[in-house]
Amino acid sequence: AAVSRRRQRAIDLHTRIDALGGRYGLTGVALAKLEALLRLLVEDPLAPTAIRNPLRAIDDHLADSLVALELEPVVQARQAVDVGSGAGVPGLPLAIALPGTAFVLLESAARKCEFIEHAVSVCEIDNVDVVHARAEAWHQGFGRFDLATVRALASLDVVAEYAAPLLRVGGTLVAWRGRRDTEVEAAAIRAAAKLGLDHPEVVEAQPYPEAQHRDLYLMSKVMDTPARFPRRPGIALKRPLGSAPPRTRRAV
Known about the structure:
By secondary structure, the chain is an alpha/beta fold.
């Protein structure tokens, strides 16, 4: 019975990954690399993720990453950076799906970088460089990228400050978010005005049938980011650009 369950689970995993391939037009080579990445994410004890159920990992790591392939700025990008890449998501799945795009996975934690580098090697992903640095301090990346992706990192106004200096004019930030929040969106609008970014465009995402409250926020870079950005490491979190201005008292 145990063997039968394992066999059925393997069939289910193949079926789900094949379905992703059909949805996004991925080749057998890409699907094999996605499956190898999935195994690392759920089996490697050093993988920096709490999701160890393979079927859930397909949904929350692979499908949730690949849904960005439905966005034109993503599929057209030639130079992309995944900011605060963590376990390599969404950067690694997107790099597998877009072999013609050069990806940098930018991560400030050394151990996470080690796991990402291991995954790049095991999965034979040729279009990825891993950079151990904070976004605010990585001057070599400023003005270089068509696309910046950010998932589960910080509030929208904060990630805008991380990403805007890395984008060239005409490039796009794509940020993964959950349930919509008007205050969060207002803060992002205030930050965007200071960073050379356009107002966020919100695209509802459906990475898998049961997914709820999944949105992708697109912010295009319409002018050069002022030279005073990014601020010193840590300041974006301490003093977010999108914070509402203090209220002024009316004279009595």
